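Hi C.,

You asked whether I'd gotten around to modeling the 432-residue construct. I have! Everything is below, sequence then structure, no commentary in between.
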Amino acid sequence: MRVVVTGQGRVGLPLAVRAAEVGHRVVGYDPDEHRIKRLTVGESHVEDVPAARLRPLLASGAYRPSADPADVEDFDMAVITVPAPLRDGAPDLARVESAASLLARYLRPGATVVLETTAYPGTTEELLAPLLEEGSGLTAGRDFHLGCSPERTGRGDPARRLENTPKVVSGLGPAALAAVDGFYRQLVERTVPVSSCRQAELTRLLECGVRQVNTALVNELAMFAHDLGLDLREAIDAAATEPFGPPRFTPGPGTDGPCLPIDPAYLPWRADRALGQSFRLVELANEVNGRMPDYVVRRLTAALDERRRPVRGARLLLLGPADACGTGDCGECGDSADFGDSWATPAARIAELLTRAGAEVRAAGPRSGCCPDGPPAAAVTRVAVTPGELAAADAVVLLSDHAEHDDRAVTRHARYVLDCRRRPAGAAVEVL
């Protein structure tokens, strides 16, 4: 089939490459010309798609990145993977609407359109379908197929790939479901059909909500345990020995994952808009996780005070300033964040608070390659992790689990480390 994937970020690029690998002719459309130029020469910005995997597909013509809307025409299957950030507490679906308007111009009878972008229950049928119908003159369910298969990303886990992650699929009617399911069966080991697009959309929000609520629980416990002189990490390790216990969640500097806290915020927004009701549990979880960057700064400030070093004028090194380990995109800002996709909440918030307090903030972490422009903020200097940088810092803050950082070098050279991810161990290391 001729497949079009709109959006070539952390979700769209792996999907486009996988579709090309199984034999489809794929156009990876993205209006970001800088991103497309890099992809065209085989430079990938997504960890799941190394250059060695991308370049043979470019050479064969199986995969073609493009910023030209005309290259979308004549598609058999189109998948929308563009971001949908929050604006003033409400989902901003402008990119979804733009993608739908583009696809509608080239939509033809028998083609299929799938929404992968995370959104509120009803987005596919209430927003996407009318846009496609209005722009094409065709009717969803009769002239073309429409479905939803929400994104599922591995959050930096190298063992979790698109191919081995079960894919939830849905369609507007049995024929659409069959078309969507048939496509994804070629890409992944297992598909999970559900009864409607709304059910698929709800499934994604449930997954994110569970992570958000449980992350908030351990984050709040981390604050209480520290004040009580207890080690929450030891308790987490002990609790993990329960054979049939819940999944393991650990505290961190904020929300754990590239799509959090954005995705769970759709639930309170939708509940309020559709039912006039609040969604207390998720709202509270969002609030707790949103306070963690401020808590990290307070802990760091206290540690510096104990060492007779005020924050103002202190030289601070942030390691791994990304929202999730190995993540190539920032869900908060979308696929083209102003200062590179690695700089997502909560790292950006921590950097902002520290620079505002007068600290000299330096940062070391992988760049996504999406944005060519300088460091994440004018007052933050991006550096390499060297023994000199580690030794010169008054404090090193480990914010995420990037494997490229040498824990032994950190503990050997750093004077003080605030470890927000339980990575290195040593006398100078304090665990969040």
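If it helps when you're writing up: The chain has a mean pLDDT of 86.

Thanks,
B.
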